[in-house]
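Hello K.,

You asked for the raw outputs rather than the summary table, so here they are, unedited. I folded two proteins back to back in the same session to keep the settings identical. This is the first:
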Amino acid sequence: MKAIISLVICLFFLTPYVSAGNEPAPFNINDYAWLAGRWTGDGFGGTSEEIWSPPSADGTMMGVYRHHNADGSLNFYEFMVLDKTGLRLKHFTPELVGWETKENYVTFEMVSFTKDKIELKGLVFERKSDEEMEIRLRLKNGDKIETETFHMKRAN
Protein backbone atom coordinates (compact mmCIF):
# COMPACT_ATOMS: atom_id res chain seq x y z
CA MET A 1 0.00 0.00 0.00
CA LYS A 2 2.86 2.39 0.88
CA ALA A 3 4.41 1.64 -2.52
CA ILE A 4 1.20 2.60 -4.32
CA ILE A 5 0.85 5.84 -2.35
CA SER A 6 4.50 6.66 -3.05
CA LEU A 7 3.96 5.99 -6.76
CA VAL A 8 0.87 8.22 -6.86
CA ILE A 9 2.74 11.02 -5.07
CA CYS A 10 5.69 10.70 -7.49
CA LEU A 11 3.37 10.75 -10.50
CA PHE A 12 1.53 13.77 -9.09
CA PHE A 13 4.73 15.79 -8.76
CA LEU A 14 6.33 14.56 -12.00
CA THR A 15 3.28 15.02 -14.24
CA PRO A 16 3.67 18.79 -14.74
CA TYR A 17 7.30 18.31 -15.76
CA VAL A 18 6.62 15.44 -18.14
CA SER A 19 3.55 16.98 -19.81
CA ALA A 20 5.03 20.48 -19.98
CA GLY A 21 7.38 19.32 -22.74
CA ASN A 22 4.41 18.02 -24.77
CA GLU A 23 2.30 21.15 -24.48
CA PRO A 24 2.29 23.28 -27.62
CA ALA A 25 3.57 26.82 -27.20
CA PRO A 26 0.76 29.37 -26.97
CA PHE A 27 -0.12 31.26 -30.14
CA ASN A 28 1.87 34.48 -30.45
CA ILE A 29 0.97 36.74 -33.37
CA ASN A 30 4.54 38.08 -33.40
CA ASP A 31 5.70 34.66 -34.63
CA TYR A 32 3.94 35.48 -37.91
CA ALA A 33 5.62 38.80 -38.63
CA TRP A 34 7.02 36.98 -41.70
CA LEU A 35 3.52 37.29 -43.21
CA ALA A 36 3.65 41.12 -43.12
CA GLY A 37 4.15 42.86 -46.45
CA ARG A 38 2.93 42.55 -50.00
CA TRP A 39 2.63 39.18 -51.75
CA THR A 40 1.69 38.43 -55.37
CA GLY A 41 0.96 35.17 -57.13
CA ASP A 42 -1.54 33.01 -58.92
CA GLY A 43 -4.90 31.53 -57.99
CA PHE A 44 -8.37 30.99 -59.43
CA GLY A 45 -6.99 31.25 -62.96
CA GLY A 46 -5.84 34.84 -62.48
CA THR A 47 -3.52 36.88 -60.30
CA SER A 48 -3.63 37.38 -56.55
CA GLU A 49 -2.29 40.18 -54.38
CA GLU A 50 -2.28 39.98 -50.58
CA ILE A 51 -1.02 42.63 -48.16
CA TRP A 52 -0.58 42.06 -44.41
CA SER A 53 0.13 44.62 -41.70
CA PRO A 54 2.73 43.86 -39.02
CA PRO A 55 1.45 42.22 -35.81
CA SER A 56 -0.48 44.60 -33.56
CA ALA A 57 -0.28 44.93 -29.77
CA ASP A 58 -3.86 43.59 -29.58
CA GLY A 59 -2.71 40.20 -30.94
CA THR A 60 -4.03 40.60 -34.48
CA MET A 61 -2.78 41.05 -38.00
CA MET A 62 -4.88 42.78 -40.66
CA GLY A 63 -4.81 41.75 -44.30
CA VAL A 64 -6.38 42.62 -47.62
CA TYR A 65 -6.60 40.51 -50.76
CA ARG A 66 -7.37 41.42 -54.36
CA HIS A 67 -8.03 39.03 -57.23
CA HIS A 68 -7.82 39.86 -60.94
CA ASN A 69 -9.16 37.57 -63.65
CA ALA A 70 -6.82 36.34 -66.41
CA ASP A 71 -7.98 39.24 -68.63
CA GLY A 72 -6.87 41.75 -65.97
CA SER A 73 -10.38 42.70 -64.81
CA LEU A 74 -10.92 43.01 -61.08
CA ASN A 75 -12.86 40.08 -59.62
CA PHE A 76 -13.16 40.71 -55.85
CA TYR A 77 -11.55 42.00 -52.63
CA GLU A 78 -11.23 40.53 -49.13
CA PHE A 79 -10.63 42.16 -45.74
CA MET A 80 -9.06 39.77 -43.19
CA VAL A 81 -8.17 39.61 -39.49
CA LEU A 82 -5.85 36.91 -38.11
CA ASP A 83 -5.61 36.15 -34.38
CA LYS A 84 -5.29 33.20 -32.00
CA THR A 85 -8.82 32.00 -32.82
CA GLY A 86 -8.17 31.88 -36.57
CA LEU A 87 -9.02 34.07 -39.55
CA ARG A 88 -12.14 36.12 -40.17
CA LEU A 89 -12.80 37.66 -43.57
CA LYS A 90 -15.35 39.52 -45.65
CA HIS A 91 -15.58 39.55 -49.44
CA PHE A 92 -16.43 42.59 -51.55
CA THR A 93 -17.26 43.12 -55.22
CA PRO A 94 -15.18 45.59 -57.27
CA GLU A 95 -17.86 48.15 -56.33
CA LEU A 96 -17.25 47.38 -52.60
CA VAL A 97 -20.60 45.65 -52.14
CA GLY A 98 -20.25 42.96 -49.49
CA TRP A 99 -20.89 39.35 -50.43
CA GLU A 100 -21.76 38.47 -46.84
CA THR A 101 -24.51 40.35 -44.99
CA LYS A 102 -23.45 43.27 -42.80
CA GLU A 103 -23.16 41.19 -39.60
CA ASN A 104 -21.71 38.03 -41.16
CA TYR A 105 -18.22 37.01 -42.21
CA VAL A 106 -16.37 33.84 -43.18
CA THR A 107 -14.45 32.10 -40.39
CA PHE A 108 -11.50 29.73 -40.62
CA GLU A 109 -10.89 28.30 -37.14
CA MET A 110 -7.35 27.73 -35.88
CA VAL A 111 -6.29 24.08 -36.08
CA SER A 112 -2.54 24.18 -35.45
CA PHE A 113 0.51 26.36 -35.95
CA THR A 114 4.28 26.24 -36.17
CA LYS A 115 6.75 29.04 -36.86
CA ASP A 116 6.36 28.49 -40.63
CA LYS A 117 2.76 27.31 -40.93
CA ILE A 118 -0.70 28.41 -39.84
CA GLU A 119 -3.25 25.65 -40.34
CA LEU A 120 -6.85 26.74 -40.19
CA LYS A 121 -9.97 24.69 -40.87
CA GLY A 122 -10.06 24.85 -44.69
CA LEU A 123 -7.07 27.18 -45.15
CA VAL A 124 -3.29 26.91 -44.72
CA PHE A 125 -0.58 29.60 -44.89
CA GLU A 126 2.88 28.07 -45.19
CA ARG A 127 6.18 29.93 -45.47
CA LYS A 128 8.43 28.16 -47.97
CA SER A 129 11.26 30.71 -47.68
CA ASP A 130 11.64 34.36 -46.67
CA GLU A 131 10.45 35.28 -50.17
CA GLU A 132 7.81 32.60 -50.88
CA MET A 133 4.68 31.25 -49.26
CA GLU A 134 1.97 28.85 -50.27
CA ILE A 135 -1.71 29.30 -49.45
CA ARG A 136 -3.98 26.27 -49.72
CA LEU A 137 -7.74 26.84 -49.71
CA ARG A 138 -10.18 23.93 -49.53
CA LEU A 139 -13.39 24.60 -51.44
CA LYS A 140 -16.58 22.62 -51.86
CA ASN A 141 -17.48 22.18 -55.53
CA GLY A 142 -20.74 20.27 -55.70
CA ASP A 143 -20.13 17.01 -53.85
CA LYS A 144 -16.33 17.27 -54.10
CA ILE A 145 -13.79 19.05 -51.92
CA GLU A 146 -11.05 20.67 -54.01
CA THR A 147 -7.89 22.52 -52.98
CA GLU A 148 -6.86 25.75 -54.69
CA THR A 149 -3.16 26.41 -54.19
CA PHE A 150 -1.73 29.93 -54.41
CA HIS A 151 2.02 30.26 -55.00
CA MET A 152 2.88 33.66 -53.58
CA LYS A 153 6.13 35.64 -53.80
CA ARG A 154 7.09 38.64 -51.73
CA ALA A 155 6.71 41.81 -53.80
CA ASN A 156 8.35 45.20 -53.26
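The second followed immediately with the same parameters:
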Amino acid sequence: MFSVTDHIPARGGSDKQFAPGRSQLALQDHPRVVAHHFSGREVRPASREVVVDGTKRKLQPRAFDLLVYLIEHRHRVLSIDELLDAVWRDRDVQVCSLATAIARIRAVLGAGASGDEVIIQTHHRVGYRFVAVLECDARVAW
Protein backbone atom coordinates (compact mmCIF):
# COMPACT_ATOMS: atom_id res chain seq x y z
CA MET A 1 0.00 0.00 0.00
CA PHE A 2 1.36 3.43 -0.90
CA SER A 3 1.29 6.43 1.35
CA VAL A 4 1.44 10.08 0.39
CA THR A 5 5.19 10.14 1.03
CA ASP A 6 6.04 7.06 -1.06
CA HIS A 7 7.87 7.51 -4.33
CA ILE A 8 7.44 5.52 -7.50
CA PRO A 9 10.23 5.52 -10.08
CA ALA A 10 9.00 7.01 -13.33
CA ARG A 11 10.34 6.49 -16.83
CA GLY A 12 13.75 8.04 -17.31
CA GLY A 13 14.92 7.35 -13.77
CA SER A 14 13.32 10.31 -11.97
CA ASP A 15 10.90 9.90 -9.09
CA LYS A 16 7.31 11.12 -8.87
CA GLN A 17 5.56 11.40 -5.57
CA PHE A 18 2.44 9.22 -5.28
CA ALA A 19 -0.52 11.55 -4.92
CA PRO A 20 -3.79 10.55 -3.27
CA GLY A 21 -6.49 9.70 -5.79
CA ARG A 22 -4.07 8.71 -8.56
CA SER A 23 -3.41 5.10 -9.37
CA GLN A 24 0.04 3.67 -9.86
CA LEU A 25 -0.89 2.89 -13.48
CA ALA A 26 -1.63 6.56 -14.12
CA LEU A 27 1.87 7.45 -12.98
CA GLN A 28 3.39 5.07 -15.51
CA ASP A 29 2.24 7.24 -18.43
CA HIS A 30 0.43 4.43 -20.24
CA PRO A 31 -2.15 5.52 -22.80
CA ARG A 32 -5.71 4.50 -21.98
CA VAL A 33 -8.16 3.05 -24.47
CA VAL A 34 -10.90 5.48 -25.40
CA ALA A 35 -12.76 3.08 -27.71
CA HIS A 36 -12.60 -0.46 -29.10
CA HIS A 37 -13.78 -0.75 -32.73
CA PHE A 38 -14.96 -3.99 -34.35
CA SER A 39 -17.44 -4.91 -37.11
CA GLY A 40 -19.25 -1.55 -37.18
CA ARG A 41 -19.41 -1.46 -33.39
CA GLU A 42 -17.67 0.69 -30.84
CA VAL A 43 -17.24 0.16 -27.09
CA ARG A 44 -16.18 3.26 -25.13
CA PRO A 45 -15.03 2.21 -21.63
CA ALA A 46 -14.54 5.72 -20.19
CA SER A 47 -18.03 6.94 -21.11
CA ARG A 48 -19.57 3.46 -20.74
CA GLU A 49 -21.16 3.62 -24.19
CA VAL A 50 -21.84 1.01 -26.83
CA VAL A 51 -22.38 2.24 -30.39
CA VAL A 52 -23.71 -0.07 -33.11
CA ASP A 53 -23.74 1.26 -36.68
CA GLY A 54 -23.63 4.85 -35.37
CA THR A 55 -26.47 4.41 -32.85
CA LYS A 56 -25.87 4.40 -29.10
CA ARG A 57 -27.27 1.28 -27.45
CA LYS A 58 -28.03 0.73 -23.77
CA LEU A 59 -26.30 -2.04 -21.86
CA GLN A 60 -26.73 -2.76 -18.15
CA PRO A 61 -23.72 -1.86 -15.96
CA ARG A 62 -22.61 -5.43 -15.14
CA ALA A 63 -23.05 -6.55 -18.73
CA PHE A 64 -20.98 -3.55 -19.86
CA ASP A 65 -18.24 -4.41 -17.35
CA LEU A 66 -18.30 -7.99 -18.60
CA LEU A 67 -17.97 -6.88 -22.24
CA VAL A 68 -15.00 -4.65 -21.46
CA TYR A 69 -13.34 -7.43 -19.43
CA LEU A 70 -13.82 -9.88 -22.30
CA ILE A 71 -12.32 -7.41 -24.78
CA GLU A 72 -9.34 -6.59 -22.56
CA HIS A 73 -8.59 -10.32 -22.08
CA ARG A 74 -9.50 -11.42 -25.61
CA HIS A 75 -6.31 -13.41 -26.15
CA ARG A 76 -7.55 -16.35 -24.08
CA VAL A 77 -10.62 -18.24 -22.95
CA LEU A 78 -11.87 -16.80 -19.66
CA SER A 79 -13.23 -19.29 -17.18
CA ILE A 80 -16.71 -18.92 -15.72
CA ASP A 81 -15.21 -18.52 -12.24
CA GLU A 82 -12.80 -15.80 -13.38
CA LEU A 83 -15.60 -13.84 -15.05
CA LEU A 84 -17.86 -14.13 -12.02
CA ASP A 85 -15.03 -12.99 -9.72
CA ALA A 86 -14.00 -10.11 -12.00
CA VAL A 87 -17.44 -8.68 -12.69
CA TRP A 88 -19.58 -9.65 -9.72
CA ARG A 89 -16.68 -9.67 -7.24
CA ASP A 90 -17.80 -10.76 -3.77
CA ARG A 91 -21.46 -11.20 -4.63
CA ASP A 92 -22.92 -14.66 -4.51
CA VAL A 93 -24.33 -15.16 -8.01
CA GLN A 94 -25.17 -18.17 -10.10
CA VAL A 95 -23.76 -19.11 -13.50
CA CYS A 96 -27.11 -18.17 -15.02
CA SER A 97 -26.33 -14.50 -14.20
CA LEU A 98 -23.26 -14.73 -16.42
CA ALA A 99 -25.20 -16.47 -19.20
CA THR A 100 -27.90 -13.78 -19.02
CA ALA A 101 -25.32 -10.99 -19.25
CA ILE A 102 -23.69 -12.67 -22.27
CA ALA A 103 -27.11 -12.95 -23.94
CA ARG A 104 -27.76 -9.24 -23.28
CA ILE A 105 -24.38 -8.29 -24.75
CA ARG A 106 -25.06 -10.36 -27.85
CA ALA A 107 -28.51 -8.82 -28.24
CA VAL A 108 -27.19 -5.25 -27.93
CA LEU A 109 -24.32 -5.89 -30.32
CA GLY A 110 -26.63 -7.64 -32.77
CA ALA A 111 -24.30 -10.60 -32.81
CA GLY A 112 -25.47 -13.83 -34.33
CA ALA A 113 -28.64 -12.40 -35.88
CA SER A 114 -27.59 -13.68 -39.28
CA GLY A 115 -26.07 -16.80 -37.75
CA ASP A 116 -22.63 -16.30 -39.27
CA GLU A 117 -21.07 -13.62 -37.05
CA VAL A 118 -19.54 -14.60 -33.72
CA ILE A 119 -18.33 -11.90 -31.35
CA ILE A 120 -18.25 -13.84 -28.10
CA GLN A 121 -17.45 -17.51 -28.40
CA THR A 122 -18.90 -19.96 -25.88
CA HIS A 123 -16.69 -22.76 -24.59
CA HIS A 124 -19.28 -25.01 -23.00
CA ARG A 125 -18.69 -25.75 -19.30
CA VAL A 126 -15.44 -23.77 -19.48
CA GLY A 127 -16.06 -20.08 -20.23
CA TYR A 128 -16.14 -17.43 -22.93
CA ARG A 129 -13.80 -15.62 -25.29
CA PHE A 130 -14.15 -12.37 -27.24
CA VAL A 131 -13.23 -13.35 -30.80
CA ALA A 132 -14.20 -10.36 -32.97
CA VAL A 133 -11.24 -8.75 -34.67
CA LEU A 134 -10.53 -5.30 -33.29
CA GLU A 135 -10.00 -2.84 -36.11
CA CYS A 136 -8.18 -0.24 -34.07
CA ASP A 137 -8.17 0.89 -30.47
CA ALA A 138 -8.46 4.66 -30.23
CA ARG A 139 -6.08 5.76 -27.50
CA VAL A 140 -5.39 8.97 -25.67
CA ALA A 141 -2.29 9.73 -23.62
CA TRP A 142 -2.67 10.49 -19.91
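The longest helix spans residues 95-109.

Happy to rerun anything if the numbers look odd on your end.

Regards,
P.
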